Amino acid sequence: MIKTESYLQCVRCGKTYDIGELRYNCECGGILDVKRDLSKLDGGELKALWEKRWGMKRGIESSGVWRYRELILDAPDDKIVTRQEGNTRLYPAGSAGKWAGLSNLYFKHEGENPTGSFKDRGMTCGASAAKLFNAKTVACASTGNTSASMASYAAVSGMKSVIFIPEGKIAYGKLAQALAYGGITLQISGNFDDAMSLVQDVCRELGIYLLNSINPFRIEGQKAITFETLQQLDWEAPDWFVIPGGNLGNSSAMGKALMELHELGILSKIPKIAVIQAAGANPLYRMWTQHTPYEAVKNPETIATAIKIGNPVSWEKSLRAVKWSGGTVEQVTEQEIMDAKAKLDAAGIGAEPASCCSLAGAKKLADAGIIRPDEKVVGILTGNILKDPDAVIGYHQDQLGKLGIRGTFANRPVQIPPTLEAVRNALGC
Ligand code: F0G
Q1: How close is the Cα of 364 to the center of ligand 1, in Å?
Q2: Pairing mode, if any, of strands 160-166 and 184-188?
Q3: C-alpha dist (Å) from residue 393 to 10, 124, 351, 398, 399
């Protein structure tokens, strides 16, 4: 089936499985990595190949994921489901950097992907794996972005998609996308963690292909954020990557990408990974700071609904990434998330609330002296500003008081009669 020298390996007990075996967990309950024999690859040759593909106009390798296909998935072209994802911009942080006290801060804007979030990178690989396994139906639990992405990739490749979302708890832009792309959308009474547990049972019982990031092929595609960012930096690693953490797939993928580049000799310096969680949904942060065993957070709560997750499936991989890179885990409050969002948006860049953990976390770590003011830092912006307009309007009209959030940097709309005089008064001229 998948012709490669790769295999699956449990991150907990190390047991290996054939790459063509359809499974998401080890017998011991641990989650699985895709492993490949990197000794067969030459780092210098790979870099040259990827440079040659940069800026391709058409074709599979014009995708910002499949450009790196040697480290993504060994699949024939006719099985690859792609929307030319990736190829997102890397912005200097501008005024948001000044606010954070960082002179060398950049943002990789993953909200510029085809469905408006970083999920498209993992999804192109996951959907292609689904094709390799001859899946007809795919499913996921989601706080919104995964479902939007999966519904789109299923639609372009003729698969049926089934989505499990926590009722009333996902941002409208994301629900709209899931419906629009034709996903069968099941709103369950319960939170994301309940939906995640249900979808695993459903996929097992009904023979549906699971496309959450517990699927190791999703993680493989997700690695391309790191590959592409480093290529944009001419393979000179920053000092830090700062990344929001929810289900913890994205930070897991970043760690795996860095490990592979390091093993291939493409990267000598290892950037530190800082995972940023919302204070109300912070199981990894608790483990990290209290040195306690993993324990799920019972009733996660945050305005950043994308990361309102108490029982993240990939915590082991994410923890491995943070430890290996010498990084850290930080938490940010609701107020810190929304103030950072106001600053990031006002800098002209803009992103959805969960993404703004990157800026809020970078500032907090800079304030604490953990990140030095002149260090080179890349924050990952995971979702588009338009995904969650309610949070934006609520903040700028200072209507989030019931959530304990003030509109500190609110830019209130001003109502005026349609006269020149009123405009003069409003503009103070
Ligand atoms: N930012 C955004 C915008 C997200 O949608 C997510 C996760 C994250 C950050 C966290 O990434 O889970 O890899 O740690 N959203 C998932 C979803 C859970 O269903 O769309 P993670």
Answers
A1: 21
A2: parallel
A3: 44, 32, 14, 8, 8
Å from CA of 176 to ligand 1 middle: 17
The reply to whether ligand 1 has any atom less than 6 angstroms from the CB of 318 is no
Nearest CA to ligand 1 atom 15: 306
Cα 278 from Cα 300, distance rounded (Å): 9
Run of H or E residues at 331: strand 328-332
Residue among 260, 269, 270 at smallest CA distance from 38: 260
123: confidence class by pLDDT, cuts 50, 70, 90 = very high
Query: What does DSSP say about strands 160-166 and 272-278: parallel, antiparallel, or unpaired?
Result: unpaired
Among 93, 99, 91, which residue's Cα sits nearest to residue 363? 99
Atom of ligand 1 nearest to the CA of 111: 3
In the predicted structure, residue 3 carries a pLDDT above the cut 80: no
CA distances from 211 to 182, 302, 327, 399, 409 (A): 16, 24, 28, 36, 38
Rounded CA separation 228/242 (Å): 16
Task: Return the SS3 of 15.
Answer: coil
Cα of 145 vs centre of ligand 1, distance in Å, is 7
CA 251, chain centre distance (Å)? 8
In this structure, are residues 164 and 195 in contact, taking their beta carbons and an 8 Å threshold? yes
Q: What is the pLDDT of residue 167?
A: 87
Other residues' Cβ atoms within 10 Å of the Cβ of residue 285: 21
Under a CB-based contact definition with an 8 Å cutoff, are residues 270 and 258 in contact?
yes
DSSP 345-407: HHTT----GGGGHHHHHHHHHHHTTSS-TTS-EEEEE-B-GGG-HHHHHHHHTT--GGGT---
Q: Whose CA is nearest to atom 7 of ligand 1?
A: 306
Residue 280 belongs to what H/E stretch?
A: none
Mean pLDDT across 233-243? 98
324-370 pLDDT, tens per residue? Answer: 999 999 999 999 999 999 999 999 999 999 999 999 999 999 999 99
d(CA 142, ligand 1 centre) in Å: 8
The Cα–Cα gap between 29 and 235 comes to 36
